């Protein structure tokens, strides 16, 4: 079991730093996928044949 | 005279003409060394302690000079194509370029280093090992730089990127070289770092021309 | 359309086939990863004991050590992709490599930062020039170099090949760097050396550690797939834009 000893702050800081870095990467990856998809959809609307198979 | 020696001599001549020859690299080295006391103070004993490390770092930085144009100019002007037409393998061509670069940077640096070591109050018994370590180690630095030069050959402003790519790879060479001098300064045997340093140079002698040639081939496709 | 099974890696070279498989894999993978993290974190804080020497700070190990493993694992994967790019010219290899590099850098950064925070109560300083921390720092620098080269070269195909060569050169150098840094460290060994690895680790700590490592691996795979899909979408956008601009010889 956890015993909030003298070093609780360090443990918290380590987990927070990990969450921030990995969370940031997750958020950035997800947002860029969404943005790319939106751009592609707008662009594909320009092609009435619905976008042929990718070469 | 075959194409390989022709390329080597041409590069040496070019280096002398455009003023990027041995003298300027040495002046750069000298400037770095004279800046050190301004940064850390005139305490001889302290300077003497960090001198081996500092001389090696300076050599590392001085070797980076001019690397970004090492292959670029020839690539742009089609000189590399001409030499390729002569039937010389690309691996040997880039090796000649690296050798020329080392002859005008690494070699004079190694020979001048003991003098600069004198200014930095390096231990007398470390003078010869200092020159020796640079003689053995600077070829490895040039060869690692050759890989960076080939990877950034198509980039207009590749200088900074080249340093970022190359410097982490020079860690082992720096460790072995600086340790060699430090051990010698302490009067201890330095055979192990010398062997390791030589091994680094031999390994790079194999890896660098092959990867640099591969990078050049892919860049021109 | 749905019957298309990738019978070989070559078939996965088709972005459409890849996308379909990535979409099928992503959902289950996210669920598994979340489960692993939930169980791993529970094990970290409630099931595993405090270390008799370090007390509760040992709980930082469960996020620090898997990050170090992943930092190396991602690089190994990139070497694999680099060979795929250079030798087999597999079109997905460079997409994978481009997607992986920032993830490897992120895990390396997590490893360094948690190591530093762990170091403060254990060593008394935020940064110790110890052999392993220093090697990981050099690994981060190599990752940053690879990412910089990706950005610098415009043409994706050329960039992919240059990065592949750099990755392979780095792979040859990494063991030497590791060796040289270890060697350097033994010459400058400080008085007290703190060691965690080795067979001394107790099984009650090993299990949560392995589960956290699997969680990290799952997270990496999820992000890799997402980033590969993004890269493929961006390339398709690029093709369509060229087509819209009426550049001849371009197909959608």
What can you tell me about this protein's structure?
The complex is a heterotrimer of chains A (55), B (221) and C (252). Chain A has 55 residues and is mostly helical. Chain A contains one helix and no strands. Chain B has helices at 3-17, 22-40, 44-64, 72-77, 79-85, 90-104, 106-119, 127-151, 159-166, 171-185, 191-220. Chain B has eleven helices and no strands. Chain B has 221 residues and is an all-alpha fold. With 252 residues, chain C is an all-alpha fold. Chain C has one domain (15-189, 206-244). The radius of gyration of chain C is 21 Å and the shape is globular. Classes of the chains: A mainly alpha (55), B mainly alpha (221), C mainly alpha (252). The A-C interface holds A 1-8, 10-11, 13-15, 17-18, 21-22, 25-26, 29-30, 32-33, 36-37, 39-40, 43-44, 46-47, 51-55 and C 14-16, 45-46, 50, 55-57, 59-60, 63-64, 67, 102-103, 106, 109-110, 113-114, 117-118, 120-121, 219, 223, 226-227, 229-230, 233-234, 236-237, 239-241, 243-244, 251-252.
Query: Count the helices of chain C. How many?
Result: 6
Spans where pLDDT lies below 50 across 5 or more residues of chain B? none
**Domains of chain B, number:** 1
Note the quaternary state here.
heterotrimer
Structure summarized in a few sentences:
The complex is a heterotrimer of chains A (55), B (221) and C (252). With 55 residues, chain A is mainly α. Helices cover 67% and strands 0% of the residues of chain A.
């Amino acid at each position: 079991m956890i015993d909030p000893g003298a070093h609780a702050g360090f443990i918290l800081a380590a987990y927070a730093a990990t969450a921030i870095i990995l969370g940031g990467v997750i958020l950035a990856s997800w947002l860029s996928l969404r943005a790319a998809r939106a751009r592609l959809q707008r662009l594909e609307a320009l092609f009435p044949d619905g976008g042929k198979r990718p070469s | 005279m075959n194409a390989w020696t022709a390329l080597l001599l041409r590069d040496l001549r070019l280096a002398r003409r455009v003023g990027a020859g041995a003298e300027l690299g040495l002046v750069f080295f000298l400037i770095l060394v004279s800046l050190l006391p301004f940064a850390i103070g005139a305490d001889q004993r302290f300077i003497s302690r960090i001198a081996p490390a500092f001389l090696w770092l300076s050599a590392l930085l001085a070797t980076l000079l001019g690397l970004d144009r090492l292959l670029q100019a020839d690539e742009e002007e089609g000189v590399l194509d001409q030499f390729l037409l002569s039937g010389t393998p690309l691996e040997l061509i880039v090796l000649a370029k690296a050798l020329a670069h080392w002859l005008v940077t690494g070699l004079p640096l190694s020979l001048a280093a003991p003098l600069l070591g004198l200014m930095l109050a390096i231990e007398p018994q470390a003078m010869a090992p200092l020159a020796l370590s640079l003689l053995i180690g600077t070829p490895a630095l040039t060869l690692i730089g050759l890989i960076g030069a080939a990877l950034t050959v198509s980039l207009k402003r590749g200088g900074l990127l080249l340093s970022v790519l190359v410097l982490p790879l020079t860690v082992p060479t720096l460790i072995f070289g600086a340790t060699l001098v430090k051990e010698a300064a302490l009067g201890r045997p330095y055979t192990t770092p010398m062997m390791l340093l030589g091994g680094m140079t031999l390994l790079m002698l194999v890896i660098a021309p092959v990867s640099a040639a591969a990078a050049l081939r892919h860049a021109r496709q | 359309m749905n019957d298309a099974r990738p019978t070989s890696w070559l078939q996965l070279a088709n972005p459409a086939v890849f996308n379909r498989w990535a979409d099928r894999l992503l959902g289950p993978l996210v669920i598994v990863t979340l489960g692993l993290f939930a169980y791993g974190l529970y094990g970290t804080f409630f099931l595993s004991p405090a270390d008799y020497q370090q007390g509760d700070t040992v709980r930082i190990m469960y996020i620090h050590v898997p990050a170090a493993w992943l930092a190396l694992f991602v690089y190994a994967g990139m070497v694999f992709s680099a060979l795929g790019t250079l030798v087999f010219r597999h079109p997905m290899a460079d997409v994978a490599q481009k997607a992986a590099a920032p993830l490897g850098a992120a895990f390396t950064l997590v490893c360094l930062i948690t190591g530093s925070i762990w170091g403060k109560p254990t060593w008394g300083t935020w940064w110790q020039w110890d052999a392993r921390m220093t090697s990981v720092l050099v690994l981060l620098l190599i990752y940053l170099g690879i990412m910089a080269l990706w950005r610098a070269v415009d043409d994706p195909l050329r960039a992919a090949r240059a990065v592949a060569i750099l990755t392979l050169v780095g792979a040859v150098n990494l063991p030497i760097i590791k060796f040289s840094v270890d060697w350097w460290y033994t010459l400058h060994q400080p008085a007290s050396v703190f060691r965690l690895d080795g067979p001394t680790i107790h099984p009650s700590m090993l299990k949560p550690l392995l589960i956290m490592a699997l969680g990290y691996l799952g997270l990496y795979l999820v992000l890799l797939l997402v980033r590969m899909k993004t890269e493929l979408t961006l390339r398709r956008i690029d093709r369509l834009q060229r087509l819209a601009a009426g550049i001849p010889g371009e197909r959608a």
